[in-house]
Amino acid sequence: MDLKQYKGAVEAMLFAHAEPVPCERLADALQIEEPVVERLLLSLKDEYDKAEHGLCLLQLENRWQLATKKDYGEYVKKILDTRRNTPLSNAALETLTIIAYNQPVSRSFVEQVRGVDSSSTVNSLVEKGLIEEAGRLDLPGHPVSFRTTDAFLRTFGLTSLAQLPPLHGDLPLVEMAETGELPMETYGEV
Description:
This protein is an alpha+beta fold. The protein contains nine helices and six strands. 47% of the residues lie in helices and 14% in strands. The longest helix is centred in the first third of the chain and has 15 residues, at 3-17.
């Protein structure tokens, strides 16, 4: 295969997979060096960044995913006929903040920090795909732990958790989301 064919194969794999894929996995599938795949991904990203394309290539930490550009979100929603999502409640934003900054954490940890039962809020965030189970903690009872997902990163316009605002910065994550200073792209109305 030549480079154009490899590029087409990378594009096809990203499209078919629909979830973020590590560069290493793409390289393994193509049986080529990882740096070559990285160059192909960056070239694809540059192509998709042009105005006439409706897709973009997202880099989420060390994983890559094809997505639609924000400009076309309303059209995509119409064609998919998705139900209107409700905005995240303050309780959901608080819970999400606790998990994002302390992950992996148990439900009881979240409840200790918040001071209230958080079972339904945690379950709601799991259903929305913003958090997921991260295994069991090595504590008495071996409680289930939770962590944020790639959907969380996309929702808040982040490429990695390192981009979270500092804890003792100007505004906490909850206030930034409420004031609109933190983009909530995918789940702007969750």
